[in-house]
Amino acid sequence: MYPFERFTARAKKVLALAQQEAESSHHSYIGTEHLLLGLLREQEGLAAKALANLGVEIDVVRQTIDELLGRSEGIIVQQIIPTSRVKQVIELAFEEAERSNQTEVGTEHLLLGLLIEAEGIAAHVLERLGADLVRVRRELVRLGGDAALLEAGGVRPEGLPSARRGAAPLVQSRFVNRGALSWGSRSALALAEEEAGRAGAVAVGPEHLLSGLLRQGEGLAARALSAKGVRPGPLRAQRGAAAAAEPGPIQPSDELLSALSVPRTSAREHRGTGALLRALLADPEGGAARALRGLGVEPDAVLAELERLEGEPGAEID
């Protein structure tokens, strides 16, 4: 799919180890679970070190995968090919490397690709073990990885309040520039644009911002959505196929602009992700509300969870 020479030596070794894992399990494919095991086996890679620091152990991962899939003992496999999901992970890894201005794909980019793809077995195992995308990004940078890994995912350095005066987002949306938005809200908008581009949409709509708020990961909106069982993969699937986008920057839809124009309801200087989520769900027939109902989640239940979270100490930092 991509020039093999664009992988680092350790990333190349991970790919070889992933194939070994598939062969030893007598699987006819290389899945995300094999790639995760390959990352863990390459112990000198940045990915393995980050996962180790987050408490992810290869024996536990292997046991969990075997419980989910089982092993096809005795079957001779003639040819092993990567799944379409692994191909997508590798594509995402290249995008991560490019966004952080790296010329080669390392083990850290492969790990991030697994988590961004979100629906593979590897992502589910990592989430179960507490190694989510935000924590992994931060740990990679703490270990000496390029700080642009944080910027590429819209993650602020730990402890930096998003609403402090003059704070700028690490990821800046190309189509919205509104000074009244918090750091987290601006990051969610940038991720919404990425979601629309990934889907081939002609405009960035409220359903894309809903995904952006969820992927932002640490704001009140993400916490409220996650508490009600909303996940990135099913949310994308709910949107369905989109028409091909016209060349050039993707513009916000009228519905999204309307939601972003809702006046602030408090004296806070910056509108946080919770305020954006409330604006998106203000219209019970809007795109965001319809997307949630398609997942079996009532918008009112999400708003009730959001209100509960806003009453917690520290909720003003969003």
Q: Main traits of this protein?
A:
about 325 residues, 2 domains, elongated, Double Clp-N motif, mainly alpha, two-stranded parallel sheet
Question: What is the structure about, briefly put?
Answer:
By secondary structure, this protein is mainly alpha-helical. Helix content is 55%, strand content 3%. The longest helix is centred in the middle third of the chain and has 17 residues, at 183-199.
Can you put this structure into words, describing what you see?
- The protein is an all-alpha fold and 318 residues long.
- The chain has helices at residues 9-24, 32-41, 46-53, 58-69, 84-99, 107-117, 121-128, 133-142, 148-152, 183-199, 206-216, 220-227, 232-239, 254-260, 273-280, 287-294, 299-310; strands at residues 29-30, 81-82, 203-204, 251-252.
- It has two domains: 4-152, Clp, N-terminal domain (Double Clp-N motif); 183-310, Double Clp-N motif, CATH 1.10.1780.10.
- Helix content is 55%, strand content 3%.
- The strands form two sheets. Strands 1-2 form a two-stranded parallel sheet. It has a two-stranded parallel ribbon with strand order 3-4.
- Helix 2 crosses helix 7.
- The longest helix is centred in the middle third of the chain and has 17 residues, at 183-199.
- Mean pLDDT is 77; it is low at 156-179 and 241-248.
